[in-house]
Amino acid sequence: xxxxxxxxxxxxxxxxxCWNGYTVFQARMHGGADAAAVLIxxxxxxxxxxxxxxxxxxxxxxxGHIMGSTGIRDMRYGFQDMKDLVQVDWDGNIVxxxxxxxxxxxxxxxxxxxxxxxxxxxxxxxxxGYYVPGMEPLVDKGNTLILAHRNLKNPGISDKLLLDxxxxxxxxxxxxxxxxxxxxxxxxxxxxxxxxNAMARDPHCMKLASGECGDWMHMNSISRLGPNKWYxxxxxxxxxxxxxxxxxxxxxxxxxxxxxxxxxxxxxxxxFSSESLRGLGQxxxxxxxxxxxxxxxGEGNILVFDNGGxxxxxxxxPGAPTGVDNALRDYSRVLEFDPVTLKVVWQYSPVEAxxxxxxxxxxxxxxxxxxAQRLPNGNTLITEGACGRIFEVTRDHELVWEYVSPFFxxxxxxxxxxxxxxxxxxMSMVYRAYRLPYEWIPQLPRPRxxxxxxxxxxxxxxxGSPPARTKRTTTLKA
Length: 478
Known about the structure:
CATH class: Mainly Beta
CATH topology: Neuraminidase
Shape: globular
């Protein structure tokens, strides 16, 4: 069991080794009026909080603008469907909004237009949604790429109703100009017969008030590749307009052609079919797979938070008797790998964190949410989201900044009204965090940066408690 009392806010900070700036993340995700987008400085001071702005995720734009959502569909009828995608200014005024993807008619509700956005989106001008020198997202114009949901049936996958993933592109005026439907490309994804059988039986079915629905793929990130060396060398798979995505439930990372919609590059679901895939290792339940953009160290490589936990479809095993979620691992990794050779060129795992595998490898572990961002100085910002921890490491894996979210929201434990062995515990979960330059927020003066060296945990005590004193030490004799 994790500690019940622990520090929050910034706990470690070395200004000389960090890429200093502001960090944006969501607090109390899907918490309705309690949800908020939060902008902090390096010392953890809250510089602005947009109350009621949900984040799936929140992303800053130049000039102090921010994107997110103002509402979520009733979870009895839909899973993680955001009602809209909005852009607001520094003072919270909505300056752009999209919600007209589908007219929803839920029971006992008036018909309502919704975006059904979930997990990711990208504004034109920047391929990945975080700071890249010379690639600023547009603020007052431009198209937006959106990851969305659609309910449909596809007998080639299962006879169950599917909660399918779509990628759409809309103009500044809200016109839908492009759409890609995930299930239409099922036969391009390389599933084995055992995986197909397991998925047909149970495509990750959820029981909603409106009926059973299978979240079979559960995509959680989309981004354009942007300019890259592979395309410059003639490899058409990596056209700058092509889109990379990942599916948490299938362990797949793939690139689709923007022109044809076909999958032109893929790793997973099978990580044992070649020597290069075996070297990459089994990826499980991953989040935020993207190509590091031109202008950042490691440009052209794939960066992904490989969560671990359980995911995938295949042969039944003792940990997955139905063949659903049949790949298992109790720790996380951040991987940077070459998309051509699949060679891992950098990683952060329990080994690099100084942990012992398997004894305490679970101490770097987020089985859901989470992300990784490459910073201009070569450092990597990592969101270990399940525990609300955001931290920055150098290329040599030195921990130079750490922050633990103090914003507690949803409860963990049995549903309300059911007995619990222990009191229900709150979550400070962070879905995804981004670092951005001070210059993007002209409304604020550059903050003062104060170093915070690591605390010796063996000596740290809660204020007010007596210091630890050893009354007697006995030395054993031979």
